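Pilot study result, target chain (461 residues):
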Amino acid sequence: MEDPKKLEEGYVNNNTTIKEEGQKTDKNGGGDVIEIDPPANDTRNGAFDKSVDQKGEDEQPLVKQKSKRVATLDAFRGLTIVLMILVDDAGGAYARIDHSPWNGCTLADFVMPFVLFIVGVAIALALKKVPKIKDAVKKILLRTIKLLFWGILLQGRYSHAPADLVYGVDMKKIRWCGILQRIALVYMVVALIETFTTKGRPTTLKPGHFSIFTAYRWQWIGGFLSFLIYMITTFALYVPDWSFVLQHEKEAHKYTVKCGMRGHLGPACNAVGYVDRQVWGINHLYSQPVWRRLKACTLSYPNYGPLRENAPIWCQPPFEPEGLLSSISAILSGTIGIHYAHVLIHFKEHSERLKHWVSMGFGLLVIAIILHFTDAIPINKQLYSFSYVCFTAGAAGIVFSAFYILIDVWGFRKTFLLLEWIGMNAMLVLCFKLIVYLLQMRNFPTHFFSIFEIYLWIIIF
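Predicted structure:
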């Protein structure tokens, strides 16, 4: 007889539930519930199957057993939500944790990659409960459309003067890109690849460290294609001189930025900005780029402030931090996240899981550090550079592995109960935060939309 405590926590050998009708069903409906397969030398399952066969089809026993819930997923999700709220509130007051003006990585720069990492993890676990490809595709496309709709609504400059409650649609200046739009693209690509490759995927892995990669080769091919598109475009696309118009006392003045180069990774002449200007138009980009906080642009560095009298002309035009090319690069963040979920699903031993997770995490960090400090490809959130992908995904993998060791291996679950609770009750946390803003009533419209936007981020978890 199984120990009651182990049975309650899900430490059981059977990974299926036998219903009275004789149908086996997977208990892993939720995204954070992982199957636990029986050991190879366990003979109890065979005896159990024989006893079921002897009873016949009309007398199937009802056995209810729980699968183990990996608390690490909830704690990591909770940490990401805390980071979202922290940088959203404190980023403006403490510039050191706000987004890096250009090269480098601050606390705020970890939020988006952590979100995409956990989105990738959630995709692999959530799609397990959708048996039909047609239904899965329908859900994926519907969620993508919802994210795009809310992204354009919240970040498309519908609220032209939030403090004055002046609203409307200015199609000449609407911002097409944004945070939710980037998440929508990454989610759609990674989820569709995961869905369409379900049937050709082996149920068991061959021996070897790289078997998990070959089993899910189409996911990695998708990630590699996004990397290839980004790198070729970034370093091979010719960026010509470009112009923009600024209003000065009701008069329009046209300025020209001199470029005429390839492979430039500075603010003025990078291919990421050029692609967005060509695809969306310069008037549809984010009007307050963080590079205005650079020393070359303002005396208030690292904060926003008045521009220097001799500031370069490129300090003034708009730039899209969630643009098309940089969002293509972000697909790789979701691909790495879904790989961690595949390891979680296929490997049952703690040591096997950690071997894959930690080795990949440290490997990505080493690649990023080498690329950054050799000035080959600096870590840059605004460009979503390859070194930035490696650095933030590696950090996410190491944090995830550390949580797994502390919570699921060593059993220090009580220490992280607050993060776990936040991860499981994200909507309640955001509602409480919204109530605080309502009580303060300071610039309410701006804070309301900021909080509502974070709320929508959490929906995709």
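One observation from the pilot: The first strand starts at residue 16 and ends at 18. A full batch analysis is planned for the follow-on phase.
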